């Protein structure tokens, strides 16, 4: 059974993908849950138009992301926190703290959910954040 996904489905695809699934999985799970619609020629044309628009939007977003990355590389943000013995922090530095420090340092406007840390910062030092 050919279907068009309307939402991201783990191990199957993302929204707008045309995939082939077993009929029972499509009829009994994907279609009733609203995760997909049945494939039609008209639906395929619509998906093609959406994918072309998505591709052009991704190019624009990539250029914008590179610009923001260049600005971030030039931004030094300093966070002041209380420490105890052995350069251990009282508490920890989180992604929200880093977002606030970049904003106060005059860095570019970024979405706070895009700040990623492998783990919270718990000791004094210099760190690179993505």
UniProtKB/TrEMBL annotation:
GO terms for cellular component: ribonucleoprotein complex; ribosome. GO terms for molecular function: rRNA binding; structural constituent of ribosome. Keywords: Ribonucleoprotein, Ribosomal protein, RNA-binding, rRNA-binding. Gene3D superfamilies: Ribosomal protein L9, C-terminal domain, Ribosomal protein L9, N-terminal domain. Pfam families: Ribosomal_L9_C, Ribosomal_L9_N. InterPro entries: Ribosomal_bL9, Ribosomal_bL9/RNase_H1_N, Ribosomal_bL9_bac/chp, Ribosomal_bL9_C, Ribosomal_bL9_C_sf, Ribosomal_bL9_N, Ribosomal_bL9_N_sf. GO terms for biological process: translation. Residues 13-40 form the Ribosomal protein L9 domain. PANTHER family: 50S RIBOSOMAL PROTEIN L9. Belongs to the bacterial ribosomal protein bL9 family. HAMAP family: Ribosomal_bL9. This is Large ribosomal subunit protein bL9. It comes from Glycomyces artemisiae.
